[in-house]
Amino acid sequence: MAQPNFNTIHEALVGLTHEVDLFPNAMGPPQLNQDIQQINLNIGQLLGQNAQINQQIGHINQQIGQINQNLDQINENIGEINQRLQDLEDVLPVRLYNASISLDNPLLYPPGIAIVDPFPNTKAALRELTIAQCTAVAAALGLAPVAPGTIVADRRRQISDHLGCAMRF
């Protein structure tokens, strides 16, 4: 819906006041001069109100800008949540399968993971990973890096928990 252009209205009213100021120079009845003065007062009030409206519109525009920034942040957060949900959707079937297999059955990995050395093929092989191998596998799985000095059992547990192996180390 079209909105009035308050700046154009303001300019027109200012121009009108300059023209109205010339009325006292014209000959006319005294009542006309009083009417003109009243019109000038009314125009002055309208100009003041117009300035206030412009100020309020500026404030509203700032608020709309802040709302848009908040909406952008919310959309970004929703995108992150959707990505986490997608990641969980990819890994949940893997976790269910791996939780139910024996030590010697082949492990299942999330889709899109290239299974190469040093990836363990079984739960038993997972129990034998070294610190360097754990670091490589965890990085390939997209897991958060562990603190330096973390013992190998905790590193294996991180991978085991992610894959749903439910093992003790």
Provide an overview of this structure.
The chain has two domains: 6-96; 101-163, no CATH class. Helix content is 67%, strand content 0%. The protein contains five helices and no strands. The chain has helices at 6-20, 30-100, 123-126, 131-141, 152-163. Helix 4 (131-141) runs parallel beside helix 5 (152-163). The chain is rod-shaped, with a radius of gyration of 37 Å. The model has no long low-confidence stretch (mean pLDDT 90).
Layout of strands and helices, then pairs:
Elements: H1 6-20, H2 30-100, H3 123-126, H4 131-141, H5 152-163
Helix pairs in contact: 1-2, 4-5
| Helical run tally | 5
Report the end-to-end length measured between terminal Cα atoms: 68 Å
Which overall shape is indicated by the principal axes computed on the Cα atoms?
Answer: rod-shaped
Sheet having the most strands = none
Mean pLDDT: 90
Please give the number of β-strands. Answer: 0
Portion of residues in helices?
Answer: 55-70%
Keywords:
single chain; 169 residues; mainly alpha; 5 helices; coiled coil
Question: Could you give a short description of this structure?
Answer:
By secondary structure, the protein is mainly α.
